[in-house]
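Problem 12. The chain below contains 274 residues. Write out its predicted structure in token notation.
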Amino acid sequence: MKKYPKITVVTPSFNQGQFIEATIQSVLGQEYPNLEYIICDGGSTDGTVDILKKYDDKIAWWCSEKDKGQSNAINKGMRRATGDIVCWINSDDVLLPGALLAVAKFYSNHPDTDFANGYTIEIDKEGTIINFTHIIMSHFFFRHGCYNISQPGMFWKRAIFDKVGYLDESFHAKMDVEWLIRVYEAGLKVRRINCNLGAIRIYPETKTAQGGAIWKRDADALKDKYHGQYLPENNKLYQPFFKLYKLLNGCKLRNAIRKWQYCGKPFTAYKENL
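Solution.
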């Protein structure tokens, strides 16, 4: 590449001392030449701050102070971001080797893209690969509650904040879905990156695994805000067509091959972006 676009990675954090160093290393280990890394910690008391201090000279900006939750921390970081392309990676998730270079190449080849979602993998508490996810970017299916998105693989142009705004801080679990609804409704150019870019860590203590009241509250808020559209419970009619669409897109075959190749190995063993 002749020119590397500046990429800002934001990590929100709160008491994830057991995982955040792996997250930091996965970002800094990209060795991407035009990286801005920002970490917004919510006042952790578990040793996280000591870990942040270790990487003080490599992190563009970080803070550890009481905030209003994950969405607020992400917005704080995004408002400080100066990159052409931005993303966030949670403090228990990781970027896969070569992810940022793959993103830069994609945007170089598709400069009209506003938002892109790459494939991701799932890892366990120890960082072992346990699954590969499907990613489908279709406004039609998305509007009818049929979607496979994965936040660690989301990258977008920072400029689109001017068109759709930042995360709605009243959402604490489905903030990525709510924000992506605004991206689609604004008519922005959305594409899929055919690379595995990030890994989401699956373990019992996560909000994703626990579900419960937070997810229900956000689901109800989405229902009220968008008049019943974009809800998974509305997808019964479209689900068979969505499954066919995924099959024709090659998602299932692609993932089956990679599961056979990589499941049971550490996420650092994934080298397809290099």
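Discussion. The mean pLDDT is 91. Students who got a different answer should revisit the alignment rule from Section 12.3.
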